[in-house]
Design goal:
3 helices; 15 strands; mainly beta
């Protein structure tokens, strides 16, 4: 029978400097990839005459996401019960668009209709998450960490760090229920895509990462940019 352990591939310790260009590998029944869309694009103002001191360009240089776990929901066709795995993992995204293997796991045999993936903050005081916070101190009580350069009208590029405590529940309803067996089940591959192109823009204006008045709009953009789908 397959073991029911989850291998966390995208933690700081596992990924190191993230220099592996061969793509994700795994040999378990359920695999979850994370892939960036438009990661190298720079957000620029469309308006010809932006107001003084307004942000005119934002260049994203790095992004880290916190995934809070997985849940498979039973299809209700047999004695299968919901399977839940709750352990956070930090994903330092590959902005070139290369897929990153976040979870590589076997699950209890059964028939499942839906997969849920959560984006959730690392909580200060949670002993299970203290090692991750030690590696990623800027993600304490946050689920998204962005660094980059912001240029304001008439000025030179300046470094910025943006964090957000987003709580996102992503649901993937399978076209047909997926069956996992006690033997060698075919691999079920799921991909979470994140489109960075619209994070710091609204109504053709650049959103300044350092401007608290822009925070709500940026957080909404990030939440809208994340999708999950089954990869055939």
């Amino acid at each position: 029978m397959r073991s029911q352990r989850v291998v966390l591939l995208a933690s700081m310790a596992a990924l190191g400097a993230c220099t592996d260009t061969t793509g994700p590998t795994g040999d378990h029944a359920l695999q979850v990839n994370v892939r960036v869309v438009n990661g190298t694009a720079t957000t620029s103002a469309v308006n010809a005459s932006p107001r003084a001191s307004a942000a005119t360009t934002v260049e994203i240089q790095s992004v880290a996401f916190v995934l809070g776990g997985l849940k498979l929901e039973t299809a209700g066709l047999d004695s299968t019960v919901d399977w839940v795995f709750e352990e956070s993992v930090v994903i330092p995204l590959d902005l070139t668009g290369g897929p990153m293997l976040a979870f590589d796991t076997d699950v209890p045999p059964g028939v499942y209709k839906e997969l849920e993936i959560s984006v959730d903050k690392l909580e200060m005081g949670n002993p299970d998450e203290e090692p991750l916070i030690a590696d990623w101190p800027e993600l304490a009580d946050a689920s998204v960490l962005v660094t980059g350069l912001v240029t304001r009208d008439g000025g030179a590029p300046e470094s910025f760090t943006f964090t957000a405590a987003l709580d996102i529940d992503l649901e993937l309803l399978f076209d047909e229920p997926v069956t996992f067996t006690a033997g060698d089940s075919p691999v079920t591959l799921v991909t979470l895509t994140i489109d960075l192109s619209g994070w710091f823009i609204a109504a053709e204006n650049v959103l300044d990462p350092a401007d608290q008045a822009s925070r709500s709009a940026v957080e909404s953009n990030i939440q809208a940019s994340v999708e999950v789908h089954k990869t055939d």
